[in-house]
């Protein structure tokens, strides 16, 4: 099936890799995707698809097939991560402090390829394909909500998106019916003590000792308060305090992330975090500032859309490339699109020969995943509009 499409994807694969590498060389962090946006816009323009700017650096381009029919959206994210790239790539980041360490460079290249392949076939289908290129997937509250508010989903009947996935063999597809990615919240704590000389602790309220107790005590929420059959994570990402070895500082700041699926667990997390922060600080005579911020909601795939994706994967890539996966505790603002319209998000394996996980400074994808990804996105649109 789709023999001509297969041939076209093959013919395009060299340029697909070149696009990905060019995007990789020019990473830009959330809401600053200006070079990136211009690069992708230019490609749409060459295809005769004028792209509208939404949500700052975001783009929405519409490919019109024959009149009538439905409208399907394909989405990519565009942002890189605020970290210094490591490793020996020939197409290393030219922007200090920014790197495509999650694969969004690949997502954009895949969408550019799908746009080209679909534009070539626009006489063959009825309806429209909307290409959504959003800023700031990595930085909650994220770009998806802004894109939706600006009208990105206008007239859209279904939406599909993918994440190239280092943890899966190249070219395989992992998808979950219903909840697939977690609610992703964060919290910040400032422990306020009273500083002084390290040799005279009796004259201080030590925020470092208090913070150390807090880190330990808060782990009891997941181990003692949450139903063991319900997934939940609480991890600290930062702890900062003090300047030199012999001064007890005035305060220590901590921050962390909370992941879960069930809204009841979220309510419990918020309540227990506050209680333990206040209780622990009170026990050590320190004061506390505590903030809890809700992030992306759980990503919930529409079951019928998952069946549709699986049927297309089977035809396009073969049944042997469908891999059973469990939900992950990572967050993804594609969740917001799925609250508005039916659709599905899936992982496309890009892990063969790679060593480093997503968000590692030396992260890389297996570029052999790009052609099957482009093939699949194109096939999803064509099948949906059939
Ligand atoms: Ni990502």
Architecture overview:
This protein is an alpha/beta fold and 386 residues long. The protein has 2 domains: 267 residues, Zn peptidases (Aminopeptidase, 3-Layer(aba) Sandwich); 113 residues, Alpha-Beta Plaits, CATH 3.30.70. The protein has an 8-stranded mixed β-sheet, with helices on both faces. A 4-stranded antiparallel β-sheet has the order 10-12-8-13, with helices on one face. A two-stranded antiparallel ribbon has the order 7-14. Helix 1 packs antiparallel against helix 3 and helix 5 runs antiparallel to helix 6. The two termini are 14 Å apart. The model has no long low-confidence stretch (mean pLDDT 97). The protein binds nickel (II) ion (NI). Nickel (II) ion binds next to loops.
Short account of what is shown:
The chain has 386 residues and is of the alpha/beta class.
SS content category:
alpha/beta
The major beta sheet can be summarized as: 8 strands, mixed
Mean of residue pLDDT values: 97
- Looking at CATH, which topology of the largest domain would you report? Aminopeptidase
Distance between the termini: 14 Å
Helical content stands at: 25-40%
* CATH class wording of the largest domain: Alpha Beta
Low-confidence stretches: none
Strand content: 25-35%
CATH architecture of the largest domain: 3-Layer(aba) Sandwich
Number of strands: 16
Number of helices: 9
Q: Which molecules are bound in this entry?
A: nickel (II) ion
Which overall shape is indicated by the principal axes computed on the Cα atoms? elongated
How are strands sequenced across the largest beta sheet? 1-2-4-3-5-16-6-15
Superfamily (CATH H level) name of the largest domain: Zn peptidases
Q: Topology as H/E string? A: HHEEEHEHEEEEEHEEEHEEHEHEH
Number of domains as seen in the coordinates: 2
* Rounded Rg: 23 Å
